[in-house]
Amino acid sequence: MSLMSPRLGSMVRSSNRAVEALGEHGLFYARVFAGIPRAFRKHPGEILRLIAELGTGTGALALVGGSVVIVTSITFFAGAVAAAQGFESSSSIGVGSLSPLLAAFFTARLSTPLLAGVALSVTLGAATTSQLGAMRISEEIDALEVMAIPSLPYLATTRVVAGMIVITPLYVFATLGGFLADYLLLVFFYDVGQGNFSHYSFLYLHPLDIVFSYIQVLGMVVVVMLVHTFYGYTAKGGPAGVGEAVGRSVRASLSGVMIVNLLIGMAIYANFNTFHLAG
Amino acid sequence: MSSAAVAAGKPVRALGDVLAMALDALVIMFTRRFSWREAVQQAWFIARVSLVPTLLVMLGFTLLVIFEVNLLLKDLGALDLAGGIAGIASVQQIGPFVTVVVVAGAGGTAICADLAARTIREEIAAMQVLGIDPIQRLVVPRMVAAVLVSLVLNILICAGGLVGGFFFSVYLQDVTPGAYVASIPLFTGIPEFAVSMFKAFVFGLIAAVIACYRGLTVSGGSKGVGDAVNQAVVITVAVLVPVSLSISLVQFAVL
């Protein structure tokens, strides 16, 4: 090292740190997945408790109805934006009556999965990081290890599993919220006929699209829970460190979720397009 | 008062506190000395933490939308409109929206974590004892910095979306390059861009105010700090989506 200039040396060191961080992430995720059998065998009660907790949220978030209400309201307004923009843009080229088709297309394939990804990362994910981070700082995780309970399967794996289970009802509400917004906005605000709405939105809304967008959301929730449990589990530096860990985990999972969504979306729709307007 | 009434009154009181703080900050911004140094440092700090998430979120968001819309357009035989749709997507809706998500998720969490840490360590109380107003010294510069950064990020995302969409459409989905470029101004012009910038301005302001408020009112040790950062980002995203819809509806009614 002494032969290198200081600048080069620090570059090498920082790239070493990046590789090291990558390895830490990979190792953590592998251990989370390896813990799945143990989590089901030893801690089924904990998984059930976490499902209830992730669905309703804790503290001030539970007051407004928890993650379900927040995620649904976000996809509701996103669906409304998609419907409004679809109506305005299609009317400007004279095909306003086709707007239910556009709204259904955008809501099922784009706005619900994308917005649900963002909402999951900020609700389920950030809450998980803050909870695990607080446990790490107050040395509760070390206490678990002292009691001979492997903390990673007990805390991280159960949360990833609970997230994957709780996503199903959450996704149903999120999708319903999006379509409800389409309906309300187009039928009552833009006066697209009710019959017109149901005709065009169900004519081209392939049921498989909903299944695919569910797969996208499922992929995203795995990424969200993995990233957020990692940052919470490895938090350090007192109360300030917990806040920092939450911030860092939101940044990492937002980026990760969007890239995963893009890749799953392209993989599904590039070779298997269910949309056939022209027959 | 019964406990239910207290619980119901809590969010209302918090809303009032946020508005009061924002009003204080607005008055102080123009009446008292503005701390330039802090504002520039904060702008740099927010830009630094937001830049990488912005690029990745923009890639994921814009390219997926353009990809899906091109599938639709291909079926309609209107692939020459790809540029127009990319313009609508990246300038009118996605630009401001990704800006929100990033400014709230990256900048807001960083601001909130920083202020919450200072509050927990009683640095804010110490400032007040020294006669320094935390709103003037900390909140106002952060608001200005967040607005500035979100405007810059919005421009970056709009431009990046159009350029990324160009390469994606032309090289992967066989859109004619000339048709792509020529159709952009069909739906998107200066007024739409101005609305997009206005949205980014409003979003940046709201994100900064909520983050600062939650950071300064934190209590209860490490769990409290984590919860505060979590709530700041949830509240910001949950508030900004309806605000975005309202601005869009007004825009459609007026333009």
From TrEMBL, chain B:
Membrane spanning stretches: 12-31, 43-67, 144-173, 193-216, 228-254
Keywords: Membrane, Transmembrane, Transmembrane helix
N-terminal signal peptide: none
A GO cellular component entry from the record: ATP-binding cassette (ABC) transporter complex
Superkingdom: Bacteria
Pfam families named in the record: MlaE (PF02405)
GO molecular function: phospholipid transporter activity
The name this protein goes by in its record: ABC transporter permease
Organism, as annotated: Nocardioides immobilis
